[in-house]
Amino acid sequence: MMNTDPAYKKLIECGIRPSIQRIEILRYLLTHHTHPTVDEIFVDLKKRVPTVSRTTIYNTLRMFSEKGAAFMITIDEHRVCYDGTTEPHAHFYCKHCGKVYDFHEMQPPRNVTSDMEGFHIEDAQLYYKGICPACQHTEEKKIS
Amino acid sequence: MMNTDPAYKKLIECGIRPSIQRIEILRYLLTHHTHPTVDEIFVDLKKRVPTVSRTTIYNTLRMFSEKGAAFMITIDEHRVCYDGTTEPHAHFYCKHCGKVYDFHEMQPPRNVTSDMEGFHIEDAQLYYKGICPACQHTEEKKIS
DNA sequence: ATGGGTGCAAAGGATTTGCAACATT
DNA sequence: AATGTTGCAAATCCTTTGCACCCAT
Asked: Per DSSP, which regions of chain A are E strands?
């Protein structure tokens, strides 16, 4: 049954009509925790839905982030990427290899300081940048 | 004396050679807390340094953020902007008017959760998005 | 048949690159 | 002279837009 497909279910929960393309895009996000860009999803989806266009993926992902089905991540100033995990968590960008990691145990603070009063907050993102463990080893090798 | 100019001083402190352009760009950041884009700085700088180019501003701001003289802010997926205030604080993006606000009393958490171990963190950004107080009033008018 | 969804081609726009000119020590 | 800095023009490349087609209700 369609109803048991996690991607299908999440679309319904978020009030999004489930087309083939939308299901496939969300399924990709839910099964690949690699913070893909539009293009990465496009290349993969094309295998299963050869007629799919980048435009659809752009539009769909933007809508997903507006409806709360995915996070739009702007941690890398060169390219937007997406995350299907919508439980609050933080992200890490490695300045060396460009990879984006999840910190599931860290999340954006949700208390409200006095200067935040009157602002209607719908979304929060917490980004860290630096060098990931793997690249630290690479760097050490380079130096020694 | 040059040494008393805050922009000049900060450049020295950050290990950046103070050229005319660099001083002017940093001075703009230190006196305008509007989170300007490259183009906004460009338009203003051109008045005082008519030969200045966008390229220089792109390169200079990138370098500033690498050397810790400014923050690069990617809260708006369409354009990067910059902030000369390098004390830790949070930012708010209004989805309605596009303005970026500071929350000086809020800052990115700096404790380390278990899944962050081994990562070398150099930078942290905390972004909130929603509707600012001014735009909430506008919206109310529209509806009523 | 009507509205929503998709996809193509083209336009738009921000950012980077290559390189030559220039300044500074 | 040597090194670092700047600026122009061109290239790049991600993203959006306009519009026609298509599908489902």
From this structure: 71-73, 81-83, 90-94, 100-103, 120-131
